[in-house]
Design brief:
four-stranded antiparallel beta sheet, about 25% strand, seven-stranded antiparallel beta sheet, single chain, alpha+beta, Immunoglobulin-like, elongated, disordered N terminus, about 280 residues
Length: about 280
Amino acid sequence: MSNSVYDSSAFLPRTMRSLLIAVVLMVLSMPVVVQAAAVQVTVNVQNLAPTNSVSFTPLNLGFHQGIFDSFNIGQPANSALTPLAEVGDGSAWQSAFAAADATATLGTIGGVLQPGESLSANFLVDPILNPYFTFAAMAIPSNDFFIGNDSPTAFQLFDNAGNLQLTQINQTARQIWDAGSEVFDPATAAFLSGVDGSLNNPQNSVVSFNFAELAALNGLTTAAGYPFHSNLTADSQIYNISFEVSPVPEPQNVAMLIAGLLILVGVNMRRLQQAT
């Protein structure tokens, strides 16, 4: 009836348009929210030191904006770096990093990394927001030796367009740091068998390069059970960090949601057509 309150011929097009518009808006908006600019970064670490030489505590790392300054050569180690350099505890370092750069992607890789061993981990990173990479790990056995970068902008992994431009970072023995916070003493060095590495004798000095003192630990048994022998020269390769990037897969539930909405549109269209 043309004068009926319910005019299906008019209602059908309006309903179809509303549902189709909803689906189109969902298709356009959902991928932007889910995918954003993030990429998956696989970080691989390898101990390249000679057999029975230095090991390393878990690698503490951060992808960031280039504003977190972990330490500076020629200056005293701060309270965040000291526990990492003396006993391998990176919790204070991580907290200081997060406080300095709230948008940074932070993490750790592995446990003790002995000579010849390698580990890897994946991180979700926004390459535009956090193009820089900073790291730190204690070199053991030692009192307060570590590896890391003293400039927050030393390693820019991604260019301004978000493309990976730095695929690896190599460390040699000459790049081992001495935090200057604890006096060198085999009786209190971390990662030696029968030694309490938490004990220390404050040195009150400054951060500097130093790998030569490690040779004074030759012949001592490490906590891992191997007899330590430095076998290092200034140019000895000791550590490698490499990076691989892959796109973040679109979650299947987005596609399923869109498919469900399309089915819903079809069902409603069929019912409305039957009603006419």
